[in-house]
Write a structure and sequence with these properties.
2 domains, mainly alpha, Four Helix Bundle (Hemerythrin (Met), subunit A), 6 helices, two-stranded parallel ribbon, DinB/YfiT-like, DinB-like, single chain
């Protein structure tokens, strides 16, 4: 394992898609360091400068713990996110009625956020904050999530993907045929139309699903060796929706605070 000592300057270092599994920092200054899309499983930090730290991980709650000064903060974070985003706690619903309520709450939340964006300066929906997806790109990615986990995994559609869907970087390496997607930049109106079509598809599927179908087994579209159920596929869609809504609100807040017209 590489070792860095006090003579090594990591100030402002950037780690992108790095495997830092089991990494350990002791009496270390990482001022301004940036870690993007990297694996920090098993990270240990002792006696180090961690002032003004920002951590954003959609998988935080999947771990057994996330301790800060001996306190597991996962329950605190989850409770606060549920408070900030009413309806979020319904995302683990396990029956048709609960799923319908969960999806209804999510659609209402997104409607309010899109209305907010429509009242912000022109160009806001296409503005990127800190290199992240714009609101329009986020909506396109959620089309992708629906097509992957409902269209492909649950419904087993032969051609599940909308041409405006936006995949994560590296999806081609995972075997995704990128030729089915548009290479241009669609208008925001086109994005909203595609998004509305997919939210309707989820709503209508949930309206007719039965407990028996929820328990049926499906193939994980990214990891076929790990079987899923119809219910777990719907849970993945709900997780994607809430996490990306959180990102969207975070970035709209940043744009609003900056007071700059994109």
């Amino acid at each position: 394992m590489p070792t860095f000592g006090r003579d090594d300057d990591l100030q402002g270092a950037e780690f992108v898609r790095a495997d830092l599994t089991g990494a350990r920092f002791e009496r270390t200054r990482l001022t301004g360091a940036r870690v993007v899309a990297s694996d920090l499983t098993g990270l240990v930090v002792r006696g180090s400068d961690v002032l003004n730290v920002e951590i954003d991980s959609p998988w935080l709650a999947e771990g057994d713990f996330f301790r800060v000064n001996g306190v597991d903060v996962i329950p605190l974070i989850e409770a606060e996110l549920d408070r900030r985003f009413p309806g979020r706690k319904l995302r683990r619903a396990a029956d048709p009625e609960g799923l319908a309520a969960a999806w209804s709450a999510l659609e209402s939340t997104w409607a309010a956020t899109l209305d907010r964006a429509s009242r912000m300066p022109a160009g806001t929906v296409n503005a990127s904050v800190d290199g992240e997806w714009s609101l329009a790109e986020t909506l396109r990615h959620l089309v992708m999530a629906t097509d992957t986990w409902l269209g492909k995994a649950v419904l087993r559609a032969a051609r599940p993907y909308h041409p405006l869907a936006l995949a994560n970087a590296g999806a081609e390496e995972d075997g995704l045929d990128m030729s089915v997607f548009t290479t241009g930049t669609p208008s925001y109106e086109e994005v909203l139309t595609a998004r509305a079509d997919r939210t309707t598809m989820v709503r209508e599927f949930i309206a007719r699903v039965s407990p028996g179908i929820l328990a049926e087994e499906r193939t994980n579209p990214w990891a076929p060796e790990h079987p899923e159920t119809v219910l777990s596929c719907l849970h993945t869609i709900l997780e994607e929706e809430w996490e990306h809504h959180r990102y969207a609100v975070r970035d709209l807040d940043a744009l609003e605070s900056a007071g700059d017209s994109p």
